[in-house]
């Protein structure tokens, strides 16, 4: 068996195949590096491995697989540089303070405006309630006066009717007395 045949044989073995597939990258399927990718161990291209035959026996072969250390050739170096925080200048601090003051004044103006609108609404509600109360009182007084007038008219009519009946009774009684005296 040749060295190439040993390499293929090693790749066919299940455990070694899995182990090698983690580190070996196929040159045809070489991945391209993208800046936004996370760290990926397949970036390192292990281009070769060394197989050394140890013993050749009738029962089988023994060999040693030596993987060369990974090389990061051709892969751009990732530099995790954070923007350096610089001390703010006096002008920037002043601008921030002025912006904060403007925001505070704007919030206060909005609050005052909201409170004024609320007070105006409350005043309108109170005025409307007073007006409705006055209208109700006026209507109630008018209805009461009208009922009192109707009651007064009814009472006067009733009294007039009673008086008329009494007068008729008196007339009738007088006639009966005259007739009685005349018959005597």
TrEMBL record:
The molecule here is called Stathmin
Does the record's keyword annotation contain Coiled coil? yes
What superkingdom heads the lineage?
Answer: Eukaryota
Q: Name one GO biological process term.
A: regulation of microtubule polymerization or depolymerization
Which Gene Ontology cellular component annotation is one that this UniProt entry carries?
A: neuron projection
Q: Which Gene3D superfamilies match?
A: 6.10.280.30
Family membership, please give it: Belongs to the stathmin family.
For this protein, the record's PROSITE patterns field holds: STATHMIN_1, STATHMIN_2, STATHMIN_3
Q: Which residues form a coiled coil?
A: none
State the UniProt keywords alphabetically.
Coiled coil
Organism listed in the record: Xenopus laevis (African clawed frog)
Listed Basic and acidic residues bias regions: 165-184
What InterPro entries does this protein map onto?
Answer: Stathmin_CS, Stathmin_fam, Stathmin_sf
| Location of the region described as Disordered in the Swiss-Prot/TrEMBL record | 164-184
A GO molecular-function descriptor: tubulin binding
